[in-house]
Every structure is written in structure tokens, then in C-alpha cells.
Specification:
This protein is α+β, with helices and mostly antiparallel strands and 305 residues long. The chain folds into two domains: 185 residues, no CATH class; 110 residues, Alpha-Beta Plaits (2-Layer Sandwich). It has nine helices and four strands, in the order H-H-E-H-E-H-E-H-E-H-H-H-H. The protein has a four-stranded antiparallel sheet. The protein is elongated.
Length: 305
Amino acid sequence: MRLGFVLSQTFKGIRSNRVVVASLTLVTFVSLMFLGAASLLQTQVGNLKNEWYDKVEVTAFLCPSNPTTAQCAGGEATQEQIDAIDDFLRSDAMAPYVDEIYIESKADALENFKEQMEGTTWVDALSEDAMQVSFRVKLVDPEEFEIVADELSGQPGVEYVIDQREQLESIFSVLNGATIIAGGLAITMIITALLLIVTMVRLSAMFREKDTGIMRMVGASNSLIQAPFVLEGFFAALLGSGLAVGTLYGGVKYFFDERGTDGQISFVKFIDSGDVLVMAPWLVGGALVVTVLASYIALRRYTKV
């Protein structure tokens, strides 16, 4: 009997405040979409770091035959300098940092260049003599890239050193920036949702002021009076969060699950629909808890119980 009464009062309030309830549902949907997107984006950044940081290499390009930098004032790197760099990288001092060493000769560099530029006029534009000898060093711990890069930069015959991690950091900083923007928008929308909850409770309390007064007179408990108001926000939050999770799941499944299984971009570990399912209880549960608490706090003022 009490459950039927509470539900009847809840749906009565929803019908009376349908515009506010619909607005709360949409705001919950949008805010959780932003919040979920920010969380998934951060998960993707973590996946990329785990995948790419393990493959980070430090590449040292040696002085070419026609040097133009001050580091190569002595001319092209000699075989003695190449051997000295190789011995240095294989020394006991560098053993804790260096995992693998690959020397790319001029012939190898030209062959790789032709493979990359196949089908263009650049294929025949360069000769072997114009290429540079280079060292590609795979690190034991990618976090210690600066040590290896600094040591190589000071070796005779080295023109410049490229640290792949530094290039990756610029990409990750952009992705992290996007995460912060999405998170900021989510917070803004969550605040808007909280204000809508207060508005909805206030309108419902004003609309049913006479009903709640009668309920107090006949001895109804505080929880019985408050329940319909709380359930209005609960249903709106449940619907909005459900729509957000469903949209995120569908989007990730379509755009990322397919990319991960068709082999088109197999070198990247994408987020998948499983990540959404792991996140879903937190999104839905968080939305419901926040909505119930906000409704209860608002009730303390506008229903005077």
C-alpha cells in the first residue's frame, strides 16, 4: 500500500514537472557523456604510453659528408668514431641503460628512404653518399632516455640526437589537454544538474504543499513524505546515466572495437567496449548517489521535514 502510494505520488510529480525532469535527464546524459569520454580518453592515453614507451628508441645521427653544423666542423664521421660510439654504448657504464643497438649504414638508410618514398620523385633524388650513418638504441628503461641522449650528444662525430619520447610527450600533452577540457565541461554540467535537482524539488514541494501538509497531519513519517521527491530525481538520473552509458558503449564499439579487430591499425591498442562496461557502474552509481543526496538536502529546506 505504501509503495503504491509513493509511486503514484512520484509519477504525479514527474507529470507535473515533466519539463524540469526532462531537462535533468538531458543534463545528466550530457554531463556523464563528457565525464565518461574524459575517463576513456585517459585510459587510451595510458594504453598508448604502455605500448609506445616500451618501443622508445634514442637515435643518434652521425656527421654526414656535407656537414652544416658546428658539431660536425671536423667533417664526416670516421670509422674510428663510429667504432668508438659503438664501444661506448656496449660498455659496462651504459649496460644498465642500453638494451639493444642497431647501426644503420648509409646503404641501409638509402634503402629505407626509398621504401618510405616509393612512388615519388624523391626516390632517385638522393645518393648513398648523401645519407647519414645512425645508431638506434633501444632502452632498458624508457624513463631514462635523457641519460642516453645526453651521453650520445657529447660523442665526437655525432651531429644530433633524436629522442622519440620527447616527440611522444607532445602528443600525450595534447590528449591530456583534451581530457582536462572534457573533465571541465563534465564538472560544469554536473553543477547544472545539481541546480536543476534543487529546482525540481522546489517546484514539486510547492505543487504538493497541501498534500504534504495533510500527510503530516495524519502522522506520515518523514521518509514517506520525502520518498516521492527523491524518486523523481532518481528516475531522471537513472534514465540520463543509462542513455550516457549506452551511447558511450555504442560509440566505442563502432569506432574502436571494429578498428581493433579488422587489423587496419593493429599497432595501437585501442580502448574497447569492455572499458565502458567497467566504467558503467561508477557512472550510473555516482549519478544516483549524487542525485539522491542533492534531493535529500534540498528537501530539508523546501519540504520542512
